[in-house]
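Q:
My hope is that you can spare some time for a protein that puzzles me. I hope you can help me see how the letters and the tokens relate. Thank you; the sequence and its tokens follow:
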Amino acid sequence: MLIIDPRSPVPPYEQLRQQLVAQMNSGELAPGTRLPAVRRLASDLGLAPNTVARTYRELEAAGFVHTAGRNGTVVALPNDGPDTVQQASTLADTYVRAMRGLGIGPEAMVSYVRRSLAELAPG
């Protein structure tokens, strides 16, 4: 379920992007899954279509999705190539900017990452 908090200091397109990436990373959105059409998702979330379109463009630029013409926007297959480093760097940059926007300092950022790693570690 996608939820946009209009009171958050994180812009709506970034909230949506973060949630979609999290769903892709968790496997909830598997490779090959078609994302909702821009207008439909915008309507469902109470956002402007341009906001959702921006999110999809950023996801595509980072290699998380690809546009398949009339088939819409589809979750991409995992990438083991050189783009992986670029994607990881982009995600790290996005994380740091979002956390700074929340007023969270570097030590706390690392603490959140460690907590997530511990919670998501296979076991």
